[in-house]
Amino acid sequence: MSRFAYVNGAYVRHSDASVHIEDRGFQFGDSVYEVVYLYQGKLIDAEPHLDRMERSLDELQMDMPMSRKAMGLIMKELIKRNRLKTGLVYIQVTRGSATRDFPFPSACDQTMVMTTRRMPAFDPDKALKPLKVKSLPDIRWSRCDIKTTQLLAAALSKQTALDDGYDDAWLVDEAGFVTEGTSNNAWIVTKDGKLKTRKPSHEILNGITRQSIITLATEKGIEIIEEAFTLEEALEAKEAFVTSASACLKPVTQINEHTIGNGNVGIISEQIARIYANFLKG
Ligand code: PDD
Questions:
Q1: Fewer Cβ within 10 Å of end Cβ, the chain: N or C?
Q2: What is the pLDDT of residues 97-119, one digit of tens each?
Q3: Cα 282 from Cα 267, distance rounded (Å)
Q4: Residue 90 C-alpha to ligand 1 middle, in angstroms?
Q5: Crossing angle of helices 208-219/46-59, nearest 10°?
Q6: Containing structural domain, residue 27
Q7: Which residues line ligand 1 at a C-beta cut-off of 6 Å?
C-alpha cells in the first residue's frame, strides 16, 4: 500500500486518510474520477485525462477543484512522497459534503482525493497475459461517457465473471452489441481482418488509451474502424483485446466458451501493444 494520500489540501498517511460521512461521493456517488498511468516516472496522457475529468465534472455541473497546474503539482508531489516509478495515480473529485438531500447543495467545498498504486511496467515481451471474458447484459446507466465513481454495475459484472471462472466481463447492450469491458474498452479484429472498436457515445467511456492507440496506429497506416460490433462478431473474431490506463493492452483469447482465433495472442494485438509500448518509452 502507498504511504501517502492527498486529501483536501493535505498529504496524510494512507491508513489515516478519510473523507466526511456526509460526503456526496459516499452518499450519492456524486463524484468523478480519473486514473493516470505513470510509466518510468512519466505521467502518460495527463492532459487528456484532466480534459476528460473537466468534461465529466461539467456534465455534473461541477467545476475543476483547482487549476491544472495545481493538480499537476499535487500528482508529482504524491508520486515523489510514495517513491512511485511505475503505477497508477487515482484522482477522485466529489461535490463535497452537505446534509443529505438529493438536490445539489447551494454551497459546499468540493472534496479532492489522490492516491497511487504501484504496478509493473507494461512490457509486451512478457506482460501480454491473455484474458478470458464472459458476456453479460450491460446494466449500467445511460451516461457511461461520464467517469463517475458509481461503479456498482461494473463491480457486480466483474464479480459475476470472476465467480464463473473468467477474468472480466464484456457488457452487451439490448441490441446485442458489445459496449465495453467493466473497466476497459473492447476491440476485435473481425474475421475479414478489420480492427474495430465502438465509437464514442453515451454508452461507453471514451478511453484515453483507446484514443492514443487510434492516433498511433493510424499514423502507422493501420486502419481502425470506430463501429459497434455484435457479440456474434466478437465470438467469430480473429483477435480481441482490451485497453485502459491500468491494463494498457491485454489480449482476449476466450469469450464465453469460444476460443478467439487460435487461442494465442494475435499478430495485430501484439503489433498494437508494441506500438503503444514504444509510445510509453518515447
Ligand atoms: N478504467 N471503459 C471503462 C468503463 C473504464 O472504467 C475505463 C478505465 C476505460 C478505459 O479508459 P482509459 O483508457 O482512459 O483508462 C474504458 C480505469 C482504468 C479504472 O477504472 O481503473
A1: C
A2: 999 999 999 989 999 999 999 99
A3: 22
A4: 11
A5: 130
A6: 4-120
A7: 35, 180, 183-185, 205, 207-210, 243-246
